[in-house]
Amino acid sequence: MTMDLLRSEAMQLVQLIIPMESAHRSVSYLGELGLFQFKDLNAEKSPFQRTYAAQIKRCAEMARKLRFFREQTIKAGFSPSTRSMIGTDINLDDLEVKLGEVEAELIEMNVNSEKLQRAYSELLEYKLVLQKAGEFFHSAQSIATAQQKEVEEHRLGDGSIDSPLLSEQELSTDPSKQVNLGFVTGLVPREKSLAFERILFRATRGNIFLKQAVIQDPVLDPVSGEKVEKNVFVVFYSGERAKNKILKICDAFGANRYPFTDDVGKQYHMIKEVSGKLSELKITIDTGLLHRENLLQTIGYQSEQWNLLVKKEKSIYHTLNMLSIDVTKKCLVAEGWCPVFATNQIQNTLQRATFDSNSQVGAIFQVLRTEESPPTYFRTNKFTSAFQEIVDAYGVAKYQEANPGVYTIVTFPFLFAVMFGDWGHGICLFLATLYLLLREKKLSSQQKLGDIMEMTFGGRYVIMMMALFSIYTGLIYNEFFSVPFELFGRSAYDCRDSSCRNAYTVGLIKVRDTYPFGVDPKWHGTRSELPFLNSLKMKMSILLGVAQMNLGIILSYFNARYLRNDLNIWYQFVPQLIFLNSLFGYLSLLIIVKWCTGSQADLYHVMIYMFLSPTDDLGDNQLFIGQKYLQVKNFLCCIADCATIAGTCCRTMDVVSQAVSFEEATSGSMSVAFSFLLFDFNFYLLTACHAFCQRHRGQSYTPLHNIDDSLELEAHSDSHGHEDFEFSEVFVHQLIHTIEFVLGAVSNTASYLRLWALSLAHSELSSVFYEKVLLLAWGFNNVIILIVGVVVFVCATVGVLLVMETLSAFLHALRLHWVEFQNKFYEGDGYKFCPYSFSLISEQEEV
């Protein structure tokens, strides 16, 4: 798998000539294989002008029906089953008929259910009106009867000859003079009841009497189908004009009106009749719902299989629309990319499709010659895919370009761990990742994990490697939640006296052998801890940065060698390697020598005066014999390399041909070693290269099988025109590249100091949380304070150190790989190999 990732798979452009009768099955089998990327040969046609537009429309209609079934299933409270129906092979035509029948049946059931539910809601509201309004009329009649009885008793008991005649006239009732009041009953939403009453009063100028009764439980509105809190109302009025106004106001407020009689006997009869109808409707609705639930459950069991079949068929017809049709020969012509290793698999697949479709003519498979750059394809697994995605986020590798994903598997988690080094935090991170790994199958089968959880689960192996490397670097730093441990033996130092804790290194006496692994635990807690760790981590960051940048430059050599570009080797790789190591490689050497000898030399002074005064004596800053002459040599190499990189511009693939050898281009010139210092040779080299390269440009990818193919391709390439070669433009471009590399070498090295800065910040934050929270709470000798301190310590550790610091270190490691490492060799201007595969069909419906 590592060799598969080092360079992308060899690709070839293939033409397939498929008979019409086996075209559908061939594309289907290629989709199951997933190793062929089709090219659109009908790009000039609109989707409606293509051959299989009608079939795609059919699939879209079936997809609409399936979405309708899914919505109805979810609305009914059922979740679509994800289990596959084994042994149920169904044709697309049969599925279309079945989906139409099921849709018609489901729509009819929905319509009937809505009608029955609306009738049931209306009857339920009518029953409430009969009950509440009947109670009001019964109460009013009881009060009126009691008052009448009381008046009669008062008149009979207190009547005399002195009683005024006017009272008798007032109490006497003349049927001809009585006023007949009409009334309207119904239900109005409770939130509109006050406005309803106010509008009625204003519209009739107070000539109405309104009585409302509150219904405790919400009722199902027949119109909207939603539960609404309502009040039963009774409006008494006089005259037709008042009645018309009341009816209009009821319609405006969405009040449902129902008939009512003031006859008690009729009221009882109506309530009994409505209750009977409600019981019958309830039974009918329950039976219909049960039948509908059974139908939806049956649909839910098969919906995933139907959905997958429709998506496959739709993708097959989309692919067939990309093929060109030869009407006379009754065949389809397809072109596309495939890996070279998949040639036999594709041919066997086409033969199987021909046999299964009973075709008399087999498909033709032939390789095409092309100058087009092939797609990039890396065979990855669930472990390496996440690391490859990190590289692809910067840019997809060019075809057959050295892939930094191989080295990212190790360097990315290691640089993260340098900034995150704490083996206690690393263990916590590893345990969290271990949970994802143990539940990998269950979590991968879930369709929705959430954005953050899905991203974390996708990078579970990256996080696992980050955690393991963090444990390793934490053991080197000897930090477990900022607490040192003597895991590999006792410390090599002991305190000279009791004041050792506040003393410098002179207060420590070496009494044993050097601590075998990592930082000696005695350094922690001393006043010299911070200066010591600063110096250690800063120099270590420079060493790691120079090593990784050298790796990037070395990979540029392998790129040039693989592409047989000798000019890039001699006039880009060699000068860049010499320049970087003459400056920062020399600095790395001084750091290692200073560590080994224990010298007190000032490396800042050495590096600055190597350019300001390269011939001066070093004095106390001399670390080894011959250092002065080495510095002068490095200084001259840096100047010469800048001139060489600036002068040599013939480095791109479209200028330097693979067919032109370096010896042929430079024959008769001066030696290569002396050319590093001479600009005139570079000008001659450009002229000579251009003369040879004009004949061979554009052959970066041309598989040649014999001499005739080579001659034919050369004749074909000579027939095309070439752009004019402008020396000034290429020279300016290379000059800018030189300035960018020289300045980038300095800035990139300084950028690696972020390893030191973030490592120090992580260590100090961990120390602050441990000393100022946990130890401080422990010192109070109070259980409550101790519990609060532990809770605050855990929350701060998880929230700040395990989440925010992890994200921060991840982003900084990402930047170091994208900018400081990959820009030394990685172009990243390729495009991914996207084969036609059923496994890559998106679960979401296409718009």
TrEMBL record:
Keyword tags: Coiled coil, Hydrogen ion transport, Ion transport, Membrane, Transmembrane, Transmembrane helix, Transport
InterPro entries reported for this sequence: V-ATPase_116kDa_su, V-type_ATPase_116kDa_su_euka
Nucleotide-binding among keywords: no
Coiled-coil features, chain-numbered ranges: 92-119
Entry's localization field: Membrane
Subcellular location, principal: membrane
Pfam families in the cross-refs: V_ATPase_I (PF01496)
Membrane topology, record value: Multi-pass membrane protein
Keyword Transmembrane included in the entry's annotation: yes
Transmembrane segments annotated in the record for this chain: 414-438, 459-477, 540-558, 570-593, 672-693, 783-804
GO CC entries: vacuolar proton-transporting V-type ATPase, V0 domain
GO biological process: vacuolar acidification
GO molecular function: ATPase binding; proton-transporting ATPase activity, rotational mechanism
Highest rank taxon of the organism: Eukaryota
Its job: Essential component of the vacuolar proton pump (V-ATPase), a multimeric enzyme that catalyzes the translocation of protons across the membranes. Required for assembly and activity of the V-ATPase.
Family classification: Belongs to the V-ATPase 116 kDa subunit family.
Protein name per the record: V-type proton ATPase subunit a
